[in-house]
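Students often ask why we bother encoding 3D structure as a string. The short answer is that it lets us treat folding as translation between two languages. Here is a chain of 166 residues written in the first language.
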Amino acid sequence: MILDHHYFMGLALEEASKAYAQGEVPVGAVLVDGDGGVLGQAFNVPVSSNDPTAHAEILALRQASSSLRNYRLTDTHLYVTLEPCPMCLGAILHGRIRRLVFGALDPKWGAAGSVVDLTSVSGFNHYIEVIKGIREEECARLLRRFFLERRQERRQRIRGEVPKRP
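And here it is in the second language, the structure alphabet:
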């Protein structure tokens, strides 16, 4: 079966919007099986959960592993709005995810080519197919808006103003 990357990235964007609404960095992830069945979906919550590992990717993998009762997630496809960090890429490798599809590049933490590329290290025993740039502008726009608002709120606090949030 050929998966509709545009559609599944849309689901990941919906998850990212939930993170945005909660004041978390707006990253969303959706894990699907080879037939397109959703196995896990999540959004970033490290701030509200006080958990540095509570990235969307990790939470989606945990959800799927729990429901499947297996940490091996072979023949699955992970859709993420932002290029995964090294921690998330490590979990993706250990879970034996078949394909990673992401939207926006992460020039500060990206581990699928932007800063480092952990997807095809010759010493690893698992390699991941990577598709970059699906709905890239939408994913990047949400992140830019989030960080712009945070900078504006910080400036307002410095000036003693009350931040206005939509």
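Translate back mentally: Strands lie at 28-33, 38-43, 76-82, 99-104, 129-132. Keep this in mind for the problem set.
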